[in-house]
Amino acid sequence: MKRKLIVVNPKKESETERYYANTFNIENEQTLILPKTHPDIVRLRRINEALQKATFAFKSPITRVYSNNDVIQGGRLYCAFQRLPDRRARIRINTLLNGLPCVEVDLSCNHPAMLMALNGLQIPRDWYSYVASKANCNRNKVKFLVTRMIGAEDRSIDLRPSTAKKNGIPITDIPSICDREQIEYVISTEFPQLNKSLCKGGIGVFLQNLEGEILLNAMDALVNQEILSLPVHDSLCVQYIFEKEAKDAIEKSWMDVLGVDFKPWIKVDYSDHLPSKP
């Protein structure tokens, strides 16, 4: 895969402007040109200008990455900060943003939640755990399978332990054939609107686009309140004193982008440096 910088005019755009308005395209050699007034360029420039004087680990500009040379496919937000480890060792959440501990405000089970919201419906809180309890398996198996079904072209999904091991995925997270049958049965019977969208090529990059738009809108709204944030997959990292503002911004953006009147489920991860947590 190759990444290409999207700029207004590659011959005239200054290095500073490129830093402020970084966006990329993946998949081919072509460069996608966006006008300077394009909403993505305007918002990214505003956000990166606000972050220019901030201090945080692995500092880099925020970029938006598309797929297939198309601004409605892909579109997730990226920065080097995301590369900090946080699973086996809680390093990222325990770094500082402008000298203060952080929280990560996360959209819980966001891709299934968005698929249901597009049908005007809300999923249960911690949807993966809900399905796991009905299918008599663990949460990680549900998440593993559903994540791949969302991005799959068809129902051919690689569940081989050898593939999991090669990709650093614990064997306990891989559903067996029986697990898969039970998970699919629960989804098809209780969430038919979601089920009809699984294993349909293209839905994954479409959902990534919605997710990127939601977070970009939320980050821009926070900048307007002089609050800095960093994108981390489907969450925003902010100073702990702005937890409520970040939660409110993400909820509003999510409802606006998806056109619904109910809020998403939110989870918050707290820095270990904080003396007390809700």
Overall description:
The protein has 278 residues and is of the alpha+beta class. The chain has 2 domains: 3-110 and 203-270, no CATH class; 124-190, no CATH class. It has helices at 15-20, 39-51, 110-117, 127-135, 139-151, 161-166, 177-190, 192-195, 203-223, 243-258; strands spanning 3-5, 23-26, 63-67, 70-78, 96-97, 100-107, 230-232, 235-239, 266-270. β3 and β4 form a beta hairpin. The termini are far apart. 37% of the residues are buried. Mean pLDDT is 87; it is low at 1-21 and 26-30.
Q: What key phrases describe this protein's structure?
A:
single chain; 278 residues; four-stranded mixed beta sheet; 10 helices; 2 domains; alpha+beta; 40% helix; 16% strand; disordered N terminus; five-stranded antiparallel beta sheet
Mean pLDDT comes to: 87
Radius of gyration: 19 Å
Number of helices: 10
- SSE string, helices as H and strands as E: EHEHEEEEHHHHHHHEEHE
Number of strands: 9
The unreliable regions are: 1-21, 26-30
Secondary structural class: alpha+beta
Task: List the domain count as a whole number.
Answer: 2
How is the biggest beta sheet arranged?
5 strands, antiparallel
